[in-house]
Structures are given as C-alpha cells and as structure tokens.
Amino acid sequence: MKRVVHIGLTAVVASGLLAGCGNKTETPAPAPAAGGNGQTAAKPFEGKKLTLVTANHPWGEAIKPLLPQFEEKTGIKVEVQSFFEDQLTQKLTVQFTSGAATPDVFMYRPLQEGKLFYKNGWVQPLDDYSKKDADYDFNDFNKTAVSTTTVDGKLAGIPIITEQEILYYRKDLLQKANIPVPKTLDELVDAVKKLHDPKSEMYGFVARGQRSPLITQVSSFLYSEGGDFMQGDKATVNTPEAIKAFTTYATLLKDYGPPGVLNMSWPQAIGIFAQGKVAFYTDANSIYQNATDPSKSTVADKVGFAVFPAGKAGSKPYNITSWGLSMNAKSANKDASWEFIKWATSKDVVLATQQKGNPGARQSVWDKPEGSTGFPAELATVIKESQKGGVDHDRPTVISVGEARDAVGAIVLKGITGEGDIKTAAETANKELQAIIDKDKGK
C-alpha cells in the first residue's frame, strides 16, 4: 500500500546520504575497559556511528524519542535522515548503485522495492543475526509478516509495520436500516445496494479507483475468491476466480460509488467516507485515524470496523509487512547495525511504538492488553483476527512492480468505465503480466 504521511521529520538533501558514517572498522567484540584490568566495557560499541534512513512516517516519529536510550545503552551514535515516501526509494537507489556504505540501516517497503534491492545485492540477509540471541525471540514475529520480508528463502528485513485490509462501515446507518455487518462479499453487495441513495448524496461503497493504487485493495477480493495474481512464475489474472473478484470490485465502484472514483487513491476515498457520504469502505487498517479523528471526520463516532468479508475461499485479506528495517550489505558496521535493528524490533520497543498507533508484528505484544491501547477496541480485535491468516502480499511479487500494477489495474478500469469486457481485459492483462514475469527472470 502506498502510504504518504507528510509529518514530522524534515527531508534532507541527497548529499547528506552520500556522507560517510565515520568509523569504518567493525567491532566484533566488546572492547577492554580503560585501565587494562581485563574487564569489558559497559558500552560494547562505544564510539560507533550509524546512519539510519527512515520514511517520514509515524514509526519514525515514535522511534526518534527512544534513540537516547539505545545510545546510552550501547555507546552507538545514531544519525537519522528522513525522506518523504516518494523520495525514499530514489535516494536509496542512488546510494546503493554507487556502492556506498551508508546508510547502515534503512526503512523500506518489502513489497514495492524489497525484491529489487535483494536481487541487486544491496541488502544483508539477516537469517543468522536473527537466530543469535534467544532473548530476541524471532519466532514471536507473525509468520505471514516475516514471509513478506523474505526473498528467495532469505530474510531481507525485519517487519516493523504490518497492515491488513479491513471493512470500514457506518454503524448508525446499519442500525437504522436493521442491516447486520456483512460477513461475506455477497452480503456486502446486498447491504451496499440497500444503503445506496445518490439523490441524498449517500453512496453505498467507496474504495481506490486509480489504476495502480487500486491493485493493493482489490487483492483481498481476489484472494477471498480463491485467486491470486501469480502462481509461481505463471500469471493468473484471467482465471474464473480472478474475473469474479475484479467484476465485484469494479461493479461496486461503478454502480454504487461516488462521482470521481477513477481519480481516487486512499486519501480521496477515505476523505469522502469521513465526510459522511458513504456507507462502506474497504482499505488498510493503518489509515483508520483519518476516519476517527474528529478534526478530520464528521462521522468520527459512527465508524465501525470489521474483518474483510469472505468470498468463495473464505476471508483472506492481505496480511503484510508494509514497512521493514533492513541492513546495507556494504555497511562497515554490520554488528552495530544489527544491534540497532534488534533493539528497534525488540518486544519493549515494539510495545512503545505500537502504543503510538503503529501496528507491529510481534504476537506477544498484541497479546498484552497494553499492546492494543493505541487503537480503538473494535479495531484491535479486527487486527488480531486478521493476523491469524491472510496472504503475505498485496500486489504481484515481481521486480517491475509498477508495470505489473498498471497492467492488472487496467482490468478493473475497464469494468468501472464500461469501455470493455472484463474477461477480454483480463486475457490482455495476463499476457502483459506474463511478459513482465519473464523479463524479470532474466534480471
């Protein structure tokens, strides 16, 4: 999911990234204490410096005030550089292409650039690191979230932000019409029809309608009907299951959506829902505050949350890592870098950042009552339920992600505009997606 959150940290210029991070020698073990008495230093990485690159994201805001604790404990000085999401990939690509040793640690989107970064040898596999310390308890991480950060069987990053597609709905409208919360896609369609009243500026359904952004959200419709974008190296967006899912999504937007859906990504879609003009909305749980914050929403106290409705294959929303932490393969400070990643994704720190509304991937944190305090009670229940299964991707898992999203998105666009037959569009898109898969295999 493309999340652009313009808050907090200030973007820095590229030259800042290109700067070195100081000490270039690795410290494999704690240094002797001053005085030569054979004791070890209290701060095992005293004098080390790390460069951390983050997105301008609430997690970055949550971790920044905690850094002094880490620096005091380890002796490592952390320099933080932050970029808007649309700049981040470009900045990192420039760095890694040049073979730079910095940044040492960075935030990244596993499903958007993870495969590209790994295939190019830019990230350090973390499998051995994650198993070093039993207290780290890597098995505590949600298995599906870990699967998102795994490329070719190797752990390319550690999950820090998870995301699932859920159903947002208007509690008051359902109560007034005596309609139960839909548990299946068929029930959702029926409820949408009943509450759709365009003459009163009340629309039944809204979701992303832009060609590329819609892909991540139609994915849960696809999985719940028993389909997927790919099976191995074979494109499968022309199967009966896929055509049914694309048709349902397109029909909901075409027949029961508000005007202008073709121009809607998540900010526009949740914006009109927050204006009180839509009964149902499907999207990521992570953007819920746009609907529940009274300063942004006229229906803040009327919003309900539910698990994604079941299709023929059951309820199978995407359950992904939207943001992870990874290590530069050329970092001169790998042990210190892992020390930071281990700390930032430890149980205590995940609890602290999750209490600020950042949904993490540690099961033990979600199991604690205090782990849910950063979310509405109903939403916390839905998140926990959605994390039990789901699918570890929300788009085609290829290197050329942008091309693939555009190719598949055309199917839904044809259905929304009525300019073509969805089945024919699916056949065309399947050929295009297969060509992309074949091309990427040669990279």
TrEMBL record:
Lineage top rank: taxon? Bacteria
> Which SUPFAM superfamilies does the protein's record reference?
Periplasmic binding protein-like II
Gene3D superfamilies reported in the protein's UniProt record: Periplasmic binding protein-like II
CDD domains the record matches: PBP2_TMBP_like
One Pfam family cited in the UniProt record for this chain: SBP_bac_1
Which PANTHER family does the record associate with it? Answer: ARABINOSE-BINDING PROTEIN-RELATED, DIACETYLCHITOBIOSE BINDING PROTEIN DASA
Q: What is this protein called?
A: Sugar ABC transporter substrate-binding protein
Q: What broad taxonomic lineage does this protein's source fall under?
A: Bacteria, Bacillati, Bacillota, Bacilli, Bacillales
